[in-house]
């Protein structure tokens, strides 16, 4: 795994956005895997600036998001679909029908998950997957104990994740306990992964993911086995690396 350490989250986010922009310029029909949460917001801001100032063209890309909370309709202020619209899609020229986020209201969850996998395959596969990392070492919502071969499925959130994400919902009680998430196996099939981690609260998870053993207890550690992963860290998130 290539590790890039930069001074702060602003510079790290800009680096990640530049990397994504390069991918799109090189292959305008790129299939991007996208993440939500606090970490990628600055990166999306920067991509929006590239679109507005430098004509970065998103018109041919396809996107697949990592996850969505179960039971939240797309218009819910906390749904990941809404997050993507507000923080990215609404501000660039991506074609709405080419953006995919799991449906938190799907009636038949198993067949929805299979269909999501099928669509990823049909798109030709993910060229570049943007990832964050949970304080418990998860990627997407693959919580500790998730199989490293897992596919898109329903997953219960670990208590640590519920607590971490309560900041978006106002209270712990309001955080959904279940989510539809790409599996570790799904993520590992991406041609490239870009793990972005910023802030001191990620330092332990980052160390375990990059320098610890490959283990289902820290699903991000599976990325050590991925042939083309770059971890972009700010100094705070990199503080515990040897
Ligand atoms: C979000 C996702 C999660 C987050 C992780 C970090 O789509 O898949 O794995 O990347 O929980 O979240 P933040 O960035 O809010 O610290």
UniProtKB/TrEMBL annotation:
The keyword Cell membrane does not apply. It catalyses: alpha-D-glucosamine 6-phosphate + H2O = beta-D-fructose 6-phosphate + NH4(+). GO terms for cellular component: cytoplasm. It comes from the Bacteria. GO terms for biological process: carbohydrate metabolic process; glucosamine catabolic process; N-acetylglucosamine catabolic process; N-acetylneuraminate catabolic process. One of its GO terms (molecular function) is glucosamine-6-phosphate deaminase activity. Keywords: Carbohydrate metabolism, Hydrolase. Coiled coil: none annotated. It is an enzyme of class 3 (hydrolase). InterPro entries: Glc/Gal-6P_isomerase (IPR006148), Glucosamine6P_isomerase (IPR004547), Glucosamine6P_isomerase_CS (IPR018321), NagB/RpiA_transferase-like (IPR037171). Transmembrane segments: none annotated. Residues 14-223 form the Glucosamine/galactosamine-6-phosphate isomerase domain. Signal peptide: none annotated. The active site is at residues 67, 136, 138, 143. Belongs to the glucosamine/galactosamine-6-phosphate isomerase family. NagB subfamily. This is Glucosamine-6-phosphate deaminase. It comes from Roseimaritima multifibrata. The gene is nagB_1.
């Amino acid at each position: 795994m290539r590790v890039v350490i930069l001074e702060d989250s602003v510079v790290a986010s800009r680096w990640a956005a530049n990397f994504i922009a390069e991918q799109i310029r090189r292959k305008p029909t790129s299939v991007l895997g996208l993440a939500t949460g606090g970490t990628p917001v600055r990166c999306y801001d920067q991509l929006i600036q590239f679109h507005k100032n430098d004509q970065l063209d998103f018109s041919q890309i396809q996107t697949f998001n990592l996850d969505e909370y179960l039971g939240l309709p797309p218009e819910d202020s906390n749904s990941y679909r809404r997050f993507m619209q507000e923080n990215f899609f609404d501000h660039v020229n991506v074609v709405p029908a080419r953006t995919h986020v799991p449906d938190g209201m799907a009636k038949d969850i198993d067949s929805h998950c299979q269909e999501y996998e099928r669509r990823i395959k049909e798109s030709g596969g993910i060229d570049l997957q943007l990832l964050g990392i949970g304080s418990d070492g998860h990627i997407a919502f693959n919580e500790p104990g998730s199989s490293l071969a897992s596919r898109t499925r329903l997953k219960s959130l670990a208590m640590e994740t519920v607590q971490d994400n309560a900041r978006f919902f106002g209270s712990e009680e309001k955080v959904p306990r279940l989510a539809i998430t790409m599996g570790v196996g799904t993520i590992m099939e991406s041609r490239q992964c870009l793990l972005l981690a910023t802030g001191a609260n990620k330092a332990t998870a980052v160390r375990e993911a990059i320098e610890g053993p490959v283990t289902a207890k820290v699903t991000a550690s599976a990325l050590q086995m991925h042939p083309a992963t770059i971890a972009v860290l700010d100094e705070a998130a990199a503080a515990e690396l040897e």
